[in-house]
Amino acid sequence: MNISLISPEVASSDNEPMIISAALKSSSAKVTELHHHSRGQLAGTLQGLMSIEVESCQWIVPATHGIWIPPNTKHSLLRSHGPFHGWSIYIQKSVCNNLPIKPCILELSSLLREAITRSMTWHNTELQPEHKRLMAVILDEISIIPQVKIALPMPKDIRLLKIALALSDNPSDDRNINEWSVWAGISRRSLTRRFTNETGFNFTEWRQKLRMLKALELLVAGKPITEVSLNLGYDNISRFIAIFRQNFGVTPGYYQKAMRNNHPWRNFTNTII
């Protein structure tokens, strides 16, 4: 489904309000074509992974994080993986000077999440001073929260991208590299070489890291660790715990407890790539 959260005219308007919030929940996957607008955009999902192209780079971003897209930066939503439940805020170009100048992944503090959620209720509402103060909080949070290297790069070769998108839809798919090469119509040798050249990871590493991104979402949602492990294709929970610790420096249980206690995410989510 190709739907924009707001019209192109509004996304490029420098009129008030300073921040425009929009959300969309759909039972089908969502895509948008390559485009740009003069407002800066912070985008994320409430559930699921999304694949985004920004300045010729293609990333997979988990629901635990958001992507900042500066004004006039070309970007597209390659697809959401499964039903779409996403949000965006669009910020006047004139107030983006203190915000990141390049696309980046942000760790979405609890304060920023709550402020954005509150702003979603302001449609067709005359903005009051308290609304504008909360907008200022949103801008402050975007300017100071840490940027993290958590997004997973997507391959560009159309055959490899087909595999990457299929795995993003179903991270537990355990077909081996030979089966994937036949399915995508590419030799195993080419798949192996191109995957490493285009993403920086070999196929096994890339799939493992994709599963870890999905694990973050499921753990934050309160899913039991055993269920998360099985949902991601690990029939050995000890192996899942070991791989999670290898990527994030803590066990899934520790991470889940820290999230419940509103612990800053920066200690865990800057080591996946």
TrEMBL record:
<dbReference type="InterPro" id="IPR018060">
    <property type="entry name" value="HTH_AraC"/>
</dbReference>
<dbReference type="GO" id="GO:0003700">
    <property type="term" value="F:DNA-binding transcription factor activity"/>
</dbReference>
<dbReference type="InterPro" id="IPR009057">
    <property type="entry name" value="Homeodomain-like_sf"/>
</dbReference>
<protein>
    <submittedName>
        <fullName>AraC family transcriptional regulator</fullName>
    </submittedName>
</protein>
<feature type="domain" description="HTH araC/xylS-type">
    <location>
        <begin position="161"/>
        <end position="258"/>
    </location>
</feature>
<dbReference type="InterPro" id="IPR018062">
    <property type="entry name" value="HTH_AraC-typ_CS"/>
</dbReference>
<keyword id="KW-0804">Transcription</keyword>
<keyword id="KW-0805">Transcription regulation</keyword>
<dbReference type="InterPro" id="IPR011051">
    <property type="entry name" value="RmlC_Cupin_sf"/>
</dbReference>
<keyword id="KW-0678">Repressor</keyword>
<keyword id="KW-0238">DNA-binding</keyword>
<dbReference type="Pfam" id="PF12833">
    <property type="entry name" value="HTH_18"/>
</dbReference>
<dbReference type="GO" id="GO:0043565">
    <property type="term" value="F:sequence-specific DNA binding"/>
</dbReference>
<dbReference type="InterPro" id="IPR020449">
    <property type="entry name" value="Tscrpt_reg_AraC-type_HTH"/>
</dbReference>
